[in-house]
Amino acid sequence: SYLLKGRVLTTDVYKGAPFKLIVKKLTDSMSTVKMTVTKMSAKGGVIEHGEEDNKREYSFTWNTPFTFNGNTYLLAPKENVIFDKDVIYIAQWKPISEEAGKLSSKFSVKESEKESEILELKLITENANRSADILDAICTEYNLSDIEERNQLSESTVRFIDERLSIISGELKSVEGNLENYQGSR
Fold first, then answer.
1. Which of 5, 9, 8, 64 is nearest to 36 (CA)?
2. Contacts by 7-16 with C-beta closer than 8 Å and gap 24+?
3. Which of 17, 64, 153, 185 is deepest in the core (most CB within 10 A)?
4. Are 135 and 125 in contact (CB under 8 A)?
5. Which of 8, 39, 37 lies closest to 20 in space, CA to CA?
6. Residue 46 class from Cβ within 10 Å (0-12 exposed, 13-18 middle, 19+ buried)?
7. Is residue 17 classed as helix, strand or coil in its secondary structure?
8. pTM of the shown model
9. How open is the CA angle 127-33-123, to the nearest 5 degrees?
10. For the chain, first and last CA: distance in Å?
11. Tens-level pLDDT at each residue, the chain (186 residues)
12. DSSP characters for 104-155?
């Protein structure tokens, strides 16, 4: 998550931050990492990390890995960005289970009309683009799951038909053998 810290309001900027936080090595996938990125320039900037009562400041260089609590991260600037050294961003990395739990409480599904096959999905987040991307991903996963289910059903149907054809073929050979024996004994 990327947040723009203002004097009064902190805003979710989603993909609008001028940099990207990249996880290089994760030893503890269950801990949340939150850092404040300030004094940005073309070369790097300053990271504040830690609890409110124990904050530490570190200078960083773009595209150079750094380590907090055994986890290694990297801040990469986006192309063609002009940095404002007075702007403050908060970059966060959260475990999937934590973020999924938070999002699931803001997610709803309902039928758009009675006896309709159309579902209405709704996700309420601060950033509309984030909601749209998450809903698109849910729809993509649903469609892939549906395709996989149909493929499994098709494979089961083909297997069943093959088995039945094998049985019927055996029965036909038996009937043909009986017919030949009958004709031979006449």
1. 5
2. 10/90, 11/126, 12/125, 12/126, 12/127, 12/130, 13/89, 13/127, 14/127, 14/129, 14/130, 15/129
3. 17
4. no
5. 37
6. middle
7. coil
8. 0.75
9. 25
10. 89
11. 999 999 999 999 999 999 999 999 988 778 888 999 999 999 999 999 888 788 899 999 999 999 887 889 999 999 999 999 999 999 999 988 999 999 999 999 998 888 888 889 999 999 999 999 999 999 999 999 999 999 999 999 999 999 999 899 888 887 777 777 777 766
12. HTTEEEEESSTT-S-EEEEE--S-HHHHHHHHHHHHHHHHHHHHHHHHHHHH
Q: Which amino acid is at 46?
A: V
d(CA 41, CA 156): 60
Q: How far apart are CA 127 and CA 103, in angstroms?
A: 12
Which position has the token pair 């088995």?
A: 163
Question: What is the spatial distance between Cα 144 and Cα 99, in angstroms, rounded to a whole number?
Answer: 23
Instruction: Decide: residue 95, CB within 10 A, 0-12 exposed, 13-18 middle, 19+ buried.
Output: middle
Q: Calculate the dihedral angle through the C-alpha atoms of 149, 95, 121, 105, rounding to the nearest 10 degrees.
A: 120
